[in-house]
Amino acid sequence: MHRTSVPHTDRLGQARATLDPARSLLPLVLDNAMVDYQRGTRFGFATAAAAGFNAVAPWSEQPREAVLEAAAGSRLLAVMPPAKPGETDSIEADDIAWFDPAQVELVRAMPFRASQPVADLVGMEGLGALTRAVADQSAGRSAKALPVWAVLQAFGAPAEDRRLPSPAEARALAYGALVQGASGLVWFAEDSYAGRSIGAIGIAPTPPLDYGIQVFDTGNRPLRPKPSEVAAAGGLWQAVARLNREIERLSPALLSPTAAFDYRVRVRALEPADSLEPAPLRLLLKSFDNRFTLIAVNLTNKPWRLSVTLPQPMGKVERWFDTDTAPALQRGGTEFEEDFAAHAVRLYRLSP
What is the pTM of this model? Predict the structure, then answer.
C-alpha cells in the first residue's frame, strides 16, 4: 500500500499526496476535546498540545465561537466542519488552521471489552476495514483519494462492555493502524463531564472521580468510575503522550512511499498456538532520507519469533524508542531475527 504516494493533510489543513517535510502533517487527534473555560479560551487546548497532540476534534456541543477562539490560540489543527449556512465566524479563517472531517475517511478500531481482560487479537476488524479503504484508494476504486484516519479506542464504558486499553494494547493498536496505511490517528476521547454523562471515562492527565455536572438527561446518574479506573485513564493519557512524540518523529517516513522492494518474513510460535492465521505480526517498510524504517507489531497476546530476510545487505540494524537493551539477532547483512512479547512493537532503522 502507498507505493507511490500517501494521501494526507498539511499543517494548514490542505490535502497533499507527496511529502513536504516543512508542511506535511500526520494528525494525532484528541477527539471530543474540551475548551478550558476556567482559564479562558485563549488557553484553549494547551493540555492537548503539551501531550504531543497536533490536532483536536472539539466536542461538537460547545459554543462554536469559543472553540474557534481556543483553536486559534492553540496552534493545533482543528478538525471541525465549516460554518453552517447562515452562520458567520467572527474569527477570520486565516487565523486558524482547520480541517473539514468530510475530507477524510474515518475507520473505527475499538476492540477493547470489559469481558475480555486481555485482548487476544488487537483491532482486527477495524484494521481490516482500514486495509480495505487504503487498498481501494490505491487501486483507484475510490472516487477521491482522501486521507484515511484510524479512530482508536481510548475510553471505557461499563454499560457497553467497553474498557480502557492497557498502554501496550493501545500502542499495538496505533502502530497496527499505521502499518495498515493510516495517515492520521484519532484518539477517542478526552475525559470530560460530557462523556461521564453518557457513562464513559476517557483519558486526561488527572481525571477527577466526579465532575459534578450532567449535560445529557439520560435518566441515569453520570458515571462515577472506580479509583483504579481513574488511575488507568491518567496512565493511558501519559502513554499516548509518549506515543505521540514517537510518531511525530517517525511521521516523515510514515508519509513517504512504502519501500519498493520485497522482503521475506517468517513467524514462529514460541508457545502453543492454534494457527498463524490471521498473521499475528504485521510489518511495514518505509524508505526515507537514504534509510529504511521498519515497523513490526504483534497484534496478539502470545509471543512470537520474527525473522526478516532483505534482498540487499544492510550495514546496521538499530531499534528506535525501545527500552530493551538486547541487540537484534542480526545474521549477516541481509537477515535478522528477534522475539516479540505479547502486544510488542518494534521500530527499526536499517542503514545500507
Answer: 0.94
